[in-house]
Amino acid sequence: METLFIVLIGAMAAILANQNIAVFNDGLRPVVGEHIEGRLKRRELGVTAFAMSFGLVIGFGIPFTLSASIILIHSILLGTDIIGLITPKNKWGTPLAAAVGGLYGWALLAGLESFVKLFDYLPVNFLEPLGEVGTPVVVTFMAFPALAVAMQFSIKKGILTFVLAALVRQLTVFVNESGFLSIGENVIQLNQEGMALIVGMIFLFFYAMKEKGDEGSSVDLAAMFSEKVKSIKNNVIYFVIIGALIAGATNLLIMAGDPISLNLIAEGKITDAGIAAAARAIGFIPLVASTAIATGVYSPVGFTLIFVVGLFSPNVWIAVIVGGIISFLEVMLLSSIARFLDKYPGVRNSGENIRSAMTKLLEVALLIGGANASNMIAPGFGFFFIAGFYLLNEVAGRPIVRMAVGPVGAIAVGIIANILVALGLMSIPQ
After folding, report:
1. Average pLDDT over residues 370-381
2. 33, 52, 234, 255 - which has most CB atoms within 10 Å?
3. Which residues lie across from 187 on neighbouring strands?
4. Where are the alpha helices (DSSP H) in 37-154?
């Protein structure tokens, strides 16, 4: 069943990309829109998709997938973006994209098991330390709403949001340790990072909804891009199918929508993972809706609420049904969301700031995580390597995106450590 879900997701996502219906990479949607309008050739589109997504697959998606033995959605859907857009959009290109996409999904799942077994034969098994790459992400993620507030409104409001979120976190820790909340004899444990995240999101949307546009500056997005919204709605059946499949795969705990929930799933904290996924989904609604309405190109995961459905559903079949329904409602409500975003320009504008804040936070958290993992693999040398790797990458003009430096560096240290042990230049870390 697990293999079937992943193969079907890979095939369907590749078809959506091939037909210019949906791509996972947010930055690709405007590019695909240019191709649809006839301003960009198919060959150029394929090359652009490869350049924008391949590094993220290798440097971001795969390392997280390996670290937790759970497929991070980026590793499969960024790959199917490339597959779908490189293959021609014709009567043989679309079936080819579906076949290659399905095969890619299968290889990702099958290769994952082989990789895990391979690590047992290495002199330095660095799979467990590699899991430390994502540890700081879960803890630091609660700070992104404060950063988004500071970027969009003011540093003072950002600091206020950060302080109050931190205070709520520590109050939650106190409540948990004191056992104040209980049902019968069972003490309820609240997730401190999740509570802080919710407080931060409340402040972010409070400030955003207070921000008004200039007189006469309001633009009816739904009316202005009605044909593009209509084209997305015409393809709703595809989004229902892939939404149902992804919700089912998430319920089987073989897939996660982001590094935070992935690490929580790996730790067995399914409810906390669902809360983190919900907070992320709420934050991404303005971004996904705005890019979809403006370009006519949607996301195969919609507003990412299907991951929340998968994590909170009692079984896989309910996840499949509810995931399909949620995907249908998201598409049908696209015009209403456009009008809401138009009514509150601050909320609409917050989409890009939320994305930027998440990116900056992940860059820092993954660098710290990569450094910690590397030092566990090769004490002393690990910190030295990551610091040098990061600085040289900056000087070289960032050929590797900052977000990927920590994970890629940790994998590199693991490989180097095994070579050094094989050459007798390093002892096996205890």
Report:
1. 92
2. 255
3. 182
4. 42-56, 62-68, 73-86, 93-119, 127-130, 135-140, 144-152
